[in-house]
From TrEMBL:
PANTHER family: GDP-MANNOSE MANNOSYL HYDROLASE (PTHR43046), MUTT_NUDIX FAMILY PROTEIN (PTHR43046:SF14)
InterPro entries registered for this protein in UniProt: Nudix_hydrolase, NUDIX_hydrolase-like_dom_sf, NUDIX_hydrolase_CS, NUDIX_hydrolase_dom
Protein name: NUDIX domain-containing protein
Superkingdom of this protein's organism: Bacteria
Domain Nudix hydrolase: 7-130
Taxonomic placement: Bacteria, Bacillati, Actinomycetota, Actinomycetes, Pseudonocardiales
UniProtKB keywords: Hydrolase
Cofactors demanded by this protein: Mg(2+)
Organism: Amycolatopsis acididurans
Length: 133
């Protein structure tokens, strides 16, 4: 039997751009990565699909309602398997909530100044998902 330490934790994230091409990012309010900027997201709860988890996490962390469009890709960070989905905003009002200390839309210039979680910029570049303005 494998110990819990070796079992991967399934997580989801949302890659969301506004009509201007800015990327939605959150500042993490808790570890891992407290104070760093990342995509909104979190753990998939038992019995939840990835789509349901993305919708829930976005609502909790950003106040926005989203429609997941497609899977952009998957990364492994330690024991976390993170499935990132391209999403579009369907409603809500942007606000930091749950475990996000801040939430904002950023253009390319602002994105380049943020203290990001490990590998985020490279991954988004590989997936052609950086801010578009």
């Amino acid at each position: 039997m494998r110990s819990r330490e070796h079992n991967p934790v399934r997580c989801v994230g949302a890659i969301t751009h506004d009509e201007r091409g800015r990327l939605l990012v959150i500042q993490r309010g808790h570890d891992p990565g407290r104070g760093l900027w990342s995509l909104p997201g979190g753990r998939v709860e038992p019995g939840e699909t990835d789509t349901q988890a993305v919708i829930r996490e976005m609502r909790e962390e950003t106040g926005l309602d989203v429609r997941p469009i497609r899977l952009a890709g998957m990364v492994v960070r330690g024991r976390y398997e993170i499935y990132d989905f391209v999403c579009e905003v369907a409603g809500g009002t942007l606000r930091a909530g749950d475990d996000a200390a801040d939430a904002r839309w950023v253009d390319a210039e602002a994105f380049d100044t943020l203290a990001l979680t490990d590998g985020l910029a490279e991954t988004l570049r590989d997936w052609n998902s950086l801010p578009r303005c």
